[in-house]
Amino acid sequence: MVVNALLARVATWILAAVIGVVYGVAGTIGQAAVWGVVPVGLLVASLGFIALLVAVRILTGERASALACGLGAMLATLLFANEGPGGSVVVPAPPEGATITPGLIWTFVVPLVAALVVAWPSASRLRSTN
User: Fold this and answer.
1) So what's the pLDDT on residue 93?
2) Are 16 and 69 in contact, with CB atoms under 8 Å apart?
3) DSSP 37
4) 109: burial class by Cβ within 10 Å (0-12, 13-18, 19+)?
5) Domain coordinates of the chain in residue numbers?
6) Long-range contacts of 8-15 (CB under 8 A, 24+ apart)
7) CA 17 → CA 23, 33, 37, 45, distances in Å?
8) Are 126 and 66 contacting, i.e. CB atoms less than 8 angstroms apart?
9) How far apart are CA 18 and CA 39, in angstroms?
10) Taking a C-beta distance cutoff of 8 angstroms, is the pair 72, 111 a contact?
11) Entry pTM
């Protein structure tokens, strides 16, 4: 029984990491979409990532799965933020004179949200103390 439970937890962590990688790739590519001056892609990617991590944390009931999902998304974001083999860049550096871009914000949103969701207190522990 203990081996099956451990195997299930490890499989959950791996699946959460893969889901994080997939969403990290989608968010990294989608964050560049703008509608006029509104960074719609960044808003949708950020809200979707927050919802994904909160859902993983609530559905699995553990921090490790949310951490695996967040690490997968961070890995994908970091890989796509670098220059590719053909010289293409998905998340370009801010142009001369500009201080911030949606891509730069996205690279900070991913680890900050992951840390916040993982560190958030467990609701079951809060209920048991009252």
Assistant:
1) 73
2) yes
3) T
4) buried
5) 2-129
6) 9/62, 9/64, 12/60, 12/65, 13/64, 13/65, 13/68, 14/68
7) 10, 25, 33, 17
8) no
9) 27
10) no
11) 0.87
Instruction: Count Cβ atoms below 10 Å from residue 85 Cβ, excluding itself.
Output: 5
**Encoded tokens for 92:** 């370009």
Distance of CA 3 to the CA centre of its chain: 30
Please say whether the beta carbons of 38 and 88 come within 8 A: no
The residue type of 32 is A
Q: Which amino acid is at 51?
A: A
Which 3 state secondary structure label does DSSP give 62? Answer: coil
- The residue whose two tokens read 């809060």 is 126
**Residue 121: partners with Cβ closer than 8 Å, 6 or more residues away:** none
Q: Which residues contact 14 (CB under 8 A, 6 or more apart)?
A: 68
User: What's the CA gap between 116 and 100, in Å, rounded?
Assistant: 22
**Distance from C-alpha of 6 to C-alpha of 14, rounded to nearest angstrom:** 12
Mean pLDDT, 10 residues at a time, the chain of 130 residues: 85 96 94 91 96 95 95 94 78 77 91 96 66
